[in-house]
Amino acid sequence: MLRAPSRARALLDRTPHWLAPRWCSAAGYQYDTACAHGAGDAVAGYAAMLARGARPDAYTFPSLLKAAARATASGVAVGAAVHAHVVKFGFDRNDHVASALVLAYAAGGGGAAARFVLDESATGESGASPVAWNALISGQNRARRFGHSRRSFADMVRAGVAPTAVTYVSVLSACGKGGDALLGMQVHKRVLASGALPADLKVGNALVDMYAECADMGAAWKLFDDMQVRSVVSWTSLVSGFSRAGQVDRARELFDSMPERDAVSWTAMIGGYVQAAQFMEALEMFREMQYNSVRADEFTMVSVITACAQLGALEMGEWARIYMSRHGIKMDVVVGNALIDMYSKCGSVERALDVFKEMRSRDKFTWTAIILGLAVNGHGEEAIDMFHRMIKVSEAPDEVTFIGVLTACTHAGLVDKGREFFHSMIDSYRIAPNVMHYGCMIDLLGRAGKLTEAMEIICKMPMRPNSAIWGTLLAACRVHGNTEIGELAAERLLELDPQNSMGFILLSNMYAKSNRWEDVRRLRHEIMEKGIKKEPGCSLIEMDGVIHEFVAGDRSHSMSKEIYFNLEKVLTDLKNAGYVPDITEVFVEVAEEEKPNVVYWHSEKLAIAFALLSPESNMVIRIVKNLRMCLDCHNAIKLISSLYGREVVVRDRTRFHHFRDGFCSCKDYW
């Protein structure tokens, strides 16, 4: 006989024959949350049925428990309460009801309760039925407890219960998601011995997907190639696998060869481009998806929004949000987090905060996203306040959260607060700092001029400092004129990365600032002799939903003639206002009189000249640059924002720069 767990039994003792929303709360379950996931409607329907005097039958509870299983986190509480009524109405010996209970508990993370019900459902020597075992493994997969799923399969085999095709599909999914290729191969052997292949297409697809998830594309391809019958799922598994393996071109070839495609296929290809950092291709693929009248889902939109974030494509991101609203795509926590990240990376913190406030449910990634967004956009104090709010609602921060908090301290110049957070991360939250946390501390101390302390921290790091650490210290030494530590930092940086042009540039600028012109000439000669090339500067700007790309000195744009003509007008206005080009970072082999042209034609200046051609004078100019913005462009854009009354937001490799009325949000510029 099935015995209700103690919590359900206690609930039963104080629950009348009818069921109401208050009944859910008594089980520790929030009714509003249930409604959001669909379980609330099922509970309300069941309550209404009982209120009318109708009694449940063997078909009532499986449906109710299926809704509870979909409620994931709250499924255990709903399942426990329904379990009480299962016992109350005498359906505790029904196999289908028992399996539904197992699924509801397991899907909600109540593995112990699920296993308890499964063991209690065993009859005679045969033990629990395959259906109950399948419910346990499937439920644990839903709860993303893939290790538990694999152990349950092992227990099932030890118990002498023969796996079914459904079992194989579930455990292979757990092997793939958990990266357990060894168990996956053992299951493959069992599948072959059982004769499930090639008859069962779902099992074949599960095998292809398992090998693809485990990055064994050779085995995945062989299985796919040997399949007598394939479905869209078979093809999509390979497309996803090749994308994850970094072979996005191969994935696209397969995608183009597919006899049919569904929303999952399109999403896999879009996600593959995003993972490969080919963000413009991802958006182009999404446009093709719309052209082919395939309706996107929330998974598609997360990839699209991520691509917009990386490109700084605010207009496209806004359109994606409208598309979701128009097509009824649910705004779950993952989508909300992606929108916060997108708005933050486009420099629109106000809209990121609006999304944050509108979200009915938040997780630690939501809080981390808004803290990082505020921090990188120069709102340090607000980011720290948000961190304290996160702690108050009992959401535990992780290592990424602390990167955001330390970044906030850096931008706000809160050295003591930064030290405090760094130590609390280690002592109070038991989070071991990684190289990025140390990088934040070096940045914080370096900006404050505490270079000796920064050097001491580097010497005590438990891991080897990387080029980013030494580059950050070198940049601080340039600002504060500390050539002794700066030379050491440059030496370590160039040992790790001999072709790092920025190391030479920063060191040269530091020498120039100290009037060490002989050292400047020596460095420039070394750069020329070693053939060190600076990575080409590239700037992206979105106009009317279209991404335009500019490379320094490039004339391939269709409006190149108009852009360069307008740039000459802008430069004339700048010079009349007192602008003098800063050529200290020019290291190309050109005559001295030609060096100003090199900085005049930097990619961000071309992007701004293009934006100023637009008649929309109140539009914020948003630019994403692949490199650190040079001092000349920084000074020029400050002046442009004043002369033309335009707000300019530049996201370069290191930070955001918000220019308005001749000022920049960054108090210092490196």
Automatic annotation (TrEMBL):
Keywords: Repeat, Transit peptide
Residue ranges of every copy of the DYW domain listed in the record: 578-670
PROSITE patterns, A to Z: PPR
UniProt cross-references to Gene3D superfamilies, sorted A to Z: Tetratricopeptide repeat domain
Start and stop residues of the PPR repeats: 129-163, 164-198, 231-265, 332-362, 363-397
GO molecular function per UniProt: RNA binding; zinc ion binding
Keyword Glycoprotein assigned: no
Record-level GO BP terms: RNA modification
The keyword Transferase appears for this protein: no
InterPro entries: DYW_dom, E2_motif, E_motif, PPR_At4g14850-like_plant, PPR_rpt, TPR-like_helical_dom_sf
Protein name: DYW domain-containing protein
Organism of origin: Eragrostis curvula (weeping love grass)
